[in-house]
Write a structure and sequence with these properties.
Strand order of the largest sheet: 3-4-5-2-6-7-1-8
Radius of gyration: 24 Å
Helix content: 25-40%
Number of helices: 14
Largest sheet: 8 strands, mixed
Structural class: alpha/beta
Distance between the termini: 71 Å
CATH class of the largest domain: Alpha Beta
CATH architecture of the largest domain: 3-Layer(aba) Sandwich
CATH superfamily of the largest domain: P-loop containing nucleotide triphosphate hydrolases
Length: 417
Amino acid sequence: MKVAPFEKTARQQALLDVFNSHRHGMAYGGARSGKTVVIVRNVFLRAIKRPSRHLIIRFRYNHARVSLAHATVPWVLARCFPGVPIVENKADGYWMVPCAGGGSSEVWIGGTDDKNRIEKILGNEYSTIYANECSQIPFDAIATLWTRLAENSGLEQRFYYDCNPPGKKHWTYQLFMEGKLPDGTPHKLEVGALQVNPIHNRANLSPEFVQALESLPRRLRQRFLDGEYLADVEGALWTDEMIVRAKLLEPVGLSKTIIAVDPSVSNNRGSDECGIVPCSLDENGLGIVRRDLSGKFSTRSWAAKVVAAYHAFEANYVVAEKNNGGDLVADAIRNIDPGIKVELVHAAVGKKARAEPVSMLFEQGKVALSGEFPQLEAELTETIFDDVKESPNRLDAMVWGLTHLMVKKRGARIHVG
């Protein structure tokens, strides 16, 4: 059975050495460093060796389907296994892989949030389990998966992990770097980890993509270019762990949606951004940050963006800070769509005092982040209000929105415009 040659970089070969010599092996590092491709290829290579069962899993099943089943796996199969008749069973969510010595293997794909299929997945034993983007997967789910790495196929059992490293309080850092479980007790797992960054895969990346990574704000650059675990910023109201937890929460329906706006009054190189953040409440009172649409815009441009978001998210109304321009915000929006309801809020306390109750909501697990918000997350985890040099407009807009939905109006005076 012919497998196409794969030109591994030196770092990717070193990663495979880590995987081959440890029961639990993790690749951590920046974006587009080739981690996922190398691991997916290795999973299918192991499946070809002898009849066995393997699992590739992410936190959310729909993300596993979109990024893995529809993208990475077909790419790997086409380039690395062109002569192997691997067949996907889409209905049940696995690939049937013929083995070199006869028989066949199964490579399953799943999500820890997929309540309809997770019992079936956990009912099987596996020779390989690959937790893709494992920083998004709760530790309890990982510990449960450990019990399923138990197939007696003749292959050495292997658990692969990869992630863009989050904060140092995350379970991946504790498990692989500190040698302990999240409760602080030492573990006896055989673990190995290797940092793999875009620089190690530069030959396969466009100069424009590398330049974009190099242009990221410092904290994002450390994570997605340098592949470093991040320490919390002393004095910031949000931590990386709070952000990770917020992404794990699952809203149930929607009861109310608003578009929160922290407006800018000028449009030049030195102008502040206009913060535009749609926020919702779910049926159980969970706050949801839906999107971050912020940026530098002219007045008409940001007003048009707010109007478009109002309709796209089927919002109940717009909440905006009334700035020095008086009724500029309401007027700019109504010039485009006179039917939109706008509520103007007037700050009665400073930014930090307004942000603290919202930060506490995150700490209490009452706010969900519905997606990836790199620039907003950077503001949340880096802003020190006692020493703020640039206005955190994305943060401000989010705070206005969640305050309006979830916090008693102590820090603002509300005026229906």
